[in-house]
Amino acid sequence: MMKNFLSGRLTLDALPHVWYTVGGTVFIAIMGIVLVIILTKTKRWGWLWQEWLTSTDPKKIGIMYMIASTLMLFRGMVDAGMVWFQQSVAADSQGYLSASHFQEIFTSHGDIMVFFVTMGFFFGLMNWFVPLQIGTRDLAFPFLNSLGFWLYVAGAGLINLFFVVGGNFANTGWLAVAPLSELEFNPGVGVDYWVWSLQLSGLGSLLAGINFMVTIIKKRAPGMTLMKMPLFVWTSLCSTVLIISAFPVLTATIFLLWLDRLFGMHFFTVGFGGNQMMYFNLIWMWGHPEVYILVLPAWGMFSEIVATFSRKKIFGYVSMVCAAILITLLSFLVWLHHFFTMGAGADVNSFFGIVTMVIAIPTGVQVFNWILTMYKGKVVFTSSMYWFMGFISLFTLGGMAGVLMGSPPADFQVHNSLFLVAHFHTMIIGGAFFGIFAGLTYWFPKFTGFTLNERLGKRAFWFWLIGFFVSFIPLYLLGLMGAPRRLDHYAASTGWQPLYITAAVGFVIILCGIATQIVQVIVSIKEKKQHRDTTGDPWNGRTLEWSTSSPPPFYNFSVIPKVTSREEFWEMKKRGHQPRKHYEDIELPKNTGMGIYVSAFAFLFGFAMVWYIFWLAILGLVGIIVCVILRSLDDDTEYVVPAAEVARIEASRTRA
Question: What are the pLDDT digits (tens) for 427-439?
Fold first, then answer.
């Protein structure tokens, strides 16, 4: 288990020595060198550190979340392409990937897209718009916000570090199911990289969840009761409740797995009274709430978008709130439908099957309310609405497949097949990714002051929608034909290859959509088409974030608004809102690099635990403790923006 005190399991064999680790290492090195050259030539090191890396401004932290998530999205899409290409050529042959390498790619794709892409984008959007929508200048705990982001970055770095040091990743599936993840079947460092990257990012997510929940509960503007909050804030609150409730389960579960691997504790092995089914129960007690953690914020954004572009108030606000709360509660009661085949018995399976179908009711309430909001409205079909309509079509398809699999007899037929893979991707791509794209398009003027190119946005949507159907409808068919998931090669006599090739073609179409989105951003920056409303609202937005200029000042609001309506900005415009001329001093948190230092030591600790370099792990742990103590002794955490400076900034922004 431990070769020597100084280097643990780390040997020269861990250096890159196969084509994909060498290629990954070279790519990372080139990108790092290019970045260093650019920052050195432009003399931007100090600016980068002072203005961005150490910032406690939630808007800047939100931008950094989205930049990091975009980079991880490209990594996850490369993994997806490799999987599809392998399956399209591996009839009666091994293809170009070994069985183990294929499973490593399959595992990393799932973890990256869930933990480091989807959650990263939503935390970025929540950092931007939760404070703006509830009328506050910052989150409740600015330092925790910075620390949560840098722990997320540390986890993202660790999950990619095997390219440089290690040579392999977990080949267990994205949830590292036992006993495949136990030491007997995975003696290398791949599973340990999985464990510690998720521990770091999971801790960051937990801190962020606590921060947002406290912010929403305690820092709303005067007059904003819970039932006056925008629906995006409501769904963000529900999502953070799920994070706070579910992520400790994930942390405990993978820590027990690590104890199994390091000390032979036998929590999840049959020896000495262990039980591998306990791992399935624990991991899915986190895993199914995680699905709603990913989609609930998107549904809140859809509610804002549909109301805005239908020129109507959202239909059934109270029922939308009740539905979100009910989904949050029921999401904890459906985890066992992920393994109906374990032999729990008819009573247990029936209960979880019924609850699985019941949770479709509040979900259907939201869908029908969105449709009724559009009914008799003056609907404007912008690209944001295109993403919403695409979501409705995909979510309806995926929801029907989910209800089908909620029936234990049907699930016995399609369990562990590509039908399940297609269902999951339908829900997450339609429910979460399309929501991210809709929200980014809708709020892009708030980020930048100008709108995205609509023509290219609609073109990107069609690439994504058509590419999705071409990719995943074949997977539904393959699942019904008996094709199991995680299959790296198969017999040509099955007749599956044409459908695998079709799915790979769909992936190419999706890549065209991504390329179009990149071009859309570049063209939009060149055009800088200004939004149409000088009050800061490009499409007659209804909620409070549009009451500020676009982009908003670093302090968000010069004067904290008093809220009288669920659609406060709409009411301001009807009242003929005039900016207040008398300003007061504004207190804001200072920038701090302590979040980076803590996360750097946490990264060092995680790396050391992967390789059993325990002296280095102790050093990392001591560094974390020292940084936290130093931070706790730092009372000077705020700086004051004088009223005169606020007045000058507001005057300059009004002229602009």
Answer: 999 999 999 999 9
